[in-house]
Amino acid sequence: MKPAIKENPFNQSAIWLYIVAFVFYATNHMLIIALPFLSQSLGAGRSEIGIIMGAYMFVSMFLRPVAGAVVDRFGTRNIFMIALVLNVIVLISYTAENLWAFAIMRALQGAILAFFSMTIHLLVMDLLSDKVRGQGLSLLSLASMLPYTFVPALVLFLKNQVSMTELLLLFAGLGFCNIFLGGRLFRSLSNNTGKQEKKEMEPVSIEAKAKAGRALIFPSLVMLLASIIFCIAPTYMPLYLESQGLSTAPLYFLTETGVLIFIRFFGRKYIPSSDSFPKGLLVALVICFTLSPALLALSLSTPVLLIAAVCNGMALSLLYPTLMTYISFVVPEKVRGYSIGWFIAAADFGTSSGAFLMGWLADAFTYRGMFVAAVGIGVFTLVLTFWHKGQKAVSS
Q1: In CATH, what number does 206-387 get?
Q2: CA distance linking residue 171 with residue 182, whole number of Å
Q3: In degrees, to the nearest 5, what angle opens at C-alpha 319 toward C-alphas 144 and 321?
Q4: pTM of the prediction?
Q5: Pick among 3.90.1150.10, 2.40.30.90, 3.30.300.20, 1.20.1250.20: CATH of 3-200
Q6: Which tens digit of pLDDT belongs to each residue from 238-295?
Q7: For residue range 126-153, what is the model confidence (pLDDT) as tens digits?
């Protein structure tokens, strides 16, 4: 690929990658909304639904480092297409409408997600220059989260208009469309990244993995702690506001989502794209996600609620792409996928364990006590960020 093209985060190949990511995550999020209804109609109880839905993220979380190592070993392009094809097979299999099949398919989709998310992160790094890598990762994150803004309402509308079988066939159709979109991208990648693929197939040494592990400790810990705090809003905010007789949850989420989309797009140029430790930006973002629960612990008035939503939206929009960009520069290139896998797994673990931890704190104390605990986690993260001196890129 010509150097001038790689300087543009909106070059043709990058745009196709953003579109593929958008369709993939839209389809998967549609299933997250629709499958509990279908499972319930087949006689599943709450615990069975929980097992079916939880298998997806549980398997994905544990397979991410494995997926990263496999992609490092065999290259991104082929695994990218294999993931898209397997995704369609799994989507078609849901039409069997059997609870055991649902559980197995969700676990398989979790495995597919681990490999797909790994390939798209590495592909966007290959398609763009180092200078605009941060912008590309921010745009990729934006494409991945956009479905979460409209898919729930769309699925809830469609489930009253068509049968569940027809809805599942629609999901499979979207999967087929993504194979077409991914195939077009695959052909362009075949012309541009052949040499890179050969390089990626070199075996990885234990020493390279050890160096990557040391470089990963701080960013992964920050992302894990931040994810614990980030899970509070979607999991407990509606319940807390309702318990106080307030109906302002939609306003909170609308504001947070608006800020997230705006900053991920327009703020992407401010993400440092080098191996320099972005301490100033990280401190600001940690302050934002610490301030949000602090404000909610003090007051639930509409102005305070909106300020908390803005703070959380700002942190959500930039923290992940900033840390991901930093990691991509400081770890050895031969283990970049393996390293990113551990980083994303840390974020997943923070989200899943955070929901349990914060729920336990809310039961043991109060919702306000839960927010105070979140502030404590944020302050601890801030101290860690001030203390950390950063790390330059390590050689392979």
Answers
A1: 1.20.1250.20
A2: 16
A3: 50
A4: 0.86
A5: 1.20.1250.20
A6: 888 988 999 888 899 889 989 999 999 999 989 998 888 899 999 999 999 999 999 9
A7: 999 999 999 999 999 999 988 887 887 7
